[in-house]
Design brief:
alpha+beta, three-stranded antiparallel sheet, 133 residues, two-stranded antiparallel ribbon, single chain
């Protein structure tokens, strides 16, 4: 039996990860009533519906407007794998992302975004000790 690249499990996982990276640009809101994260806008609804079908859920989300750091933690209920998708730099005006990009271009680390990321990971791990980060 011949298996093409399109039928490969590794290809499907890579495609899922690419789609989760796209979803890192979505905004999420926490619904305390059912203890889940939901999309704030419809722009990514078709992609999110597909990923829900692939057994992914959002475990946590941050959009730190002070530093420009944003990330979404996805969890696959079937594979029990956690995926951390960190949003890339978005260039719009003189935003904190713009200053972070200039810091990186200058050969330095954007310390405030890094600090925000570390604090987010610590807080998430504290809330969800059962998932491996």
């Amino acid at each position: 039996m011949t298996i093409s690249v399109n039928d490969s499990c590794t290809t499907n996982i890579a495609l899922d990860y690419a789609k989760l990276c796209d979803l890192s640009y979505a905004e999420w809101k926490f619904n305390q009533g059912n203890n889940t994260w939901e999309l704030k806008t419809e722009k990514y609804s078709a992609l999110w519906t597909e990923m829900l079908g692939n057994k992914y859920i959002v475990k946590d989300f941050i959009s730190d407007t002070q530093t420009g750091f944003s990330a979404t933690i996805f969890y696959n209920n079937e594979t029990k794998k956690t995926v951390i998708a960190i949003r890339g730099v978005e260039y719009y005006g003189l935003s904190s992302d713009f200053y972070a990009a200039m810091t990186i271009a200058d050969g330095n680390a954007p310390t405030e975004q890094f600090r925000s990321m570390v604090n987010f990971m610590i807080a998430t791990k504290t809330r969800y000790l059962r998932i491996r980060l």
